[in-house]
Design a protein that fits this description.
single chain, 236 residues, alpha/beta, Glutaconate Coenzyme A-transferase, 3-stranded antiparallel beta sheet
C-alpha cells in the first residue's frame, strides 16, 4: 500500500544533506513551509543552495535558516523586502552568494527543469547587468538571453490538502511556485494542512499528482510568517 505520510518533521527532512540544492516554495508569506524550514534548521544541513522567490522576513522561516549560516547561496528574485535584514547583512559582508533572477525567468527555469528542458531563450534581462556573460541570440530581429533550467535535490512545499498518495491541492495564491518545484526536485517534501483518505480528492481537481511527491506531513495549524515577525519571534 502506498503511503507517503510521515509522522514527524524530523523524519520529513532527515534525508537533506550538506551541499544540497533545496527549492523552497512561497511568495513572501503565502505558501511558505515554515514548519519544514524550522525542521531543517534543527536538522542542521549546511552549505545549501536555496532556490526561492525571496530571502524571508524577520528571524523566522527562510530568514532564520540563512541566519543560522546553513545557506551558502541564494537563487531568488527578491533578495530584499520590507522585513528582510538577515540576507542583506550577510551579503554585504560577503558571507553568502546571490544569483539574482527575474521572477518570470525564475519560474520558467524551475518549470523547464521539471519538464526536462535544459535551456530556453527569453527577452528578460537583455541589455542589463543580469545578461552579462550569458549567451544571446537574435530571433526575428529581437534579442534573447539563454537561461538554463533549474533542478534541485529537494523541494520543501506547503499545500492545503493531500492524501496518502501525495496528491495535492493548494489554497489560492499559496499555490505559487509549489507545483513546479514539486516536478523539479529529486525528492519533494510537503507539509499539508489536511491529509484526507485516499479517494476523497476528486482526480479532476488535483493540482500536483502524487508521482511528484515523496513525503507528506500533516501540520494542522501552520504558522504564519507575518504573525511570527510581528511578535518578534526568533527561531534558532
Amino acid at each position: 500500500m502506498i503511503n507517503k505520510q510521515v509522522i514527524s518533521l524530523s523524519e520529513a527532512v532527515n534525508e537533506i544533506y550538506d551541499g544540497a540544492t533545496v527549492m523552497i516554495g512561497g511568495f513572501g508569506e503565502a505558501g511558505s513551509p515554515i514548519e519544514l524550514i524550522h525542521a531543517l534548521i534543527d536538522q542542521g544541513a549546511k552549505n545549501l543552495t536555496v532556490v526561492s522567490n525571496n530571502t524571508g522576513s524577520g528571524n523566522v522561516g527562510l530568514a532564520a535558516l540563512i541566519a543560522n549560516k546553513q545557506v551558502k547561496k541564494m537563487i531568488c528574485s527578491f533578495p530584499r523586502t520590507a522585513n528582510s535584514t538577515v540576507f542583506p547583512e550577510l551579503y554585504n559582508t560577503g558571507e553568502i552568494e546571490l544569483e539574482l533572477v527575474p521572477q518570470g525567468t525564475l519560474a520558467e527555469r524551475i518549470r523547464a527543469g521539471g519538464a526536462g528542458i535544459p535551456a530556453f531563450y527569453t527577452p528578460a534581462s537583455v541589455h542589463t547587468p543580469l545578461a552579462k556573460g550569458k549567451e544571446s541570440r537574435v530571433f526575428k530581429e529581437k534579442e534573447y538571453v539563454l537561461e538554463y533550467g533549474i533542478k534541485a535535490d529537494f523541494s520543501l512545499v506547503k499545500c492545503e490538502t493531500s492524501d496518502r498518495y501525495g496528491n495535492l491541492l493548494y489554497h489560492a495564491t499559496a499555490r505559487n511556485f509549489g507545483p513546479i518545484m514539486c516536478t523539479a526536485a529529486k525528492v519533494t517534501i510537503v507539509q499539508a494542512k489536511n491529509i484526507v483518505e485516499a479517494g476523497q480528492i476528486d482526480p479532476e481537481v488535483v493540482v500536483t499528482p502524487g508521482i511528484f511527491v515523496n513525503k507528506v506531513i500533516e501540520i494542522k495549524n501552520p504558522a504564519h510568517e507575518s504573525e511570527l515577525v510581528a511578535a518578534g519571534i526568533k527561531y534558532s
